[in-house]
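ping. complex inputs:
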Amino acid sequence: MSLLEVRDLHVEFHTRDGVAKAVNGVSYEVDSGETLAVLGESGSGKSVTAQAVMGILDIPPGRIAAGEIVFQGRDLLKLPEAERRKIRGSKMAMIFQDALSSLNPVLTVGYQLGEMFRVHQGASRKEARERAVELMERVRIPAARERVGDYPHQFSGGMRQRIMIAMALALEPDLIIADEPTTALDVTVQAQVMELLAELQREFNMGLILITHDLGVVADVADKIAVMYAGRIVETAPVKELYRAPAHPYTRGLLDSIPRLDQKGHQLSAIKGMPPSLLEIPPACAFNPRCPMARPVCRTDEPPLYEVSEDRASACHFWKEMPDVP
Ligand SMILES: Nc1ncnc2c1ncn2[C@@H]1O[C@H](COP(=O)(O)OP(=O)(O)OP(=O)(O)O)[C@@H](O)[C@H]1O
Ligand code: SF4
Ligand SMILES: [Mg+2]
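pong. complex structure:
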């Protein structure tokens, strides 16, 4: 049994302009000690899926129309809110992009870290402070003991993101969902924070879901990847295989848009066109208006997730035409 299994999840938003179908039948699995990267352009439904898993979706306007979210053997969608709240924080935690707006500006980081232990474990103020220092050391904040009384704005962006990671780790959760955890940081700091996250994940044997729109950032740390487009998963594969030979034209397009160190002078070819409006997703294969390989059948028949190999799948009718696959 997997740590987390999302099955055929459908999420929609009821807006004034109509029903936005943000997540349209997403399934994925994460095991303990495993890292799943979820990749896709803006608006593809990565965060909404994660919010549904965490139980922090805006309902309304959001609505979970169908699906199951099975965590440690229980369907979270069938649990009462009080149960879910217990799971949140202690068994699963989330790290967001923007540490500055997630941390309270008027409380010291030591207080905010310590609060986890006071509230959840009844620790005394002194104990909580000691645990906060330990956590700060764990995420390698220099001079943790001297800095435990500092406020969030006194830390650099990278250090603040480490504090967010410390906060998520505090209660030793079994699953961490990191939603674009390094997007706001500059490139060298990005790599350090990602490295730290991967190391802690191995140490604690946690499941990790890494949401990103930048494959370059996660390629070294993820085990497997799910690529999302217009609320669906269009390709899943072990990260190295996907990198070597994508089995979906959309993935190919994403890969072609990252500069690669091993291919000097490589042309940056972003995918043409825009992601579709979720109020009006193109019929059949949603990618067809932008796909260089599209044919008439792509506008009439929705491609299922075809099995490419034991651990790979592609939602393209013509995946066999992709070079070097499987
Ligand atoms: N609170 C909301 N109200 C209405 N629609 C929403 C809401 N949250 C999300 N959506 C819709 O769901 C779509 C998918 O959003 P989501 O945040 O999951 O995208 P994403 O893949 O995480 O993109 P990004 O890379 O920009 O973070 C959005 O384009 C939006 O139309
Ligand atoms: S099904 Fe057709 S439109 Fe969709 S990705 Fe494959 S070739 Fe392109
Ligand atoms: Mg998002």
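The first helix runs from residue 46 to 54.
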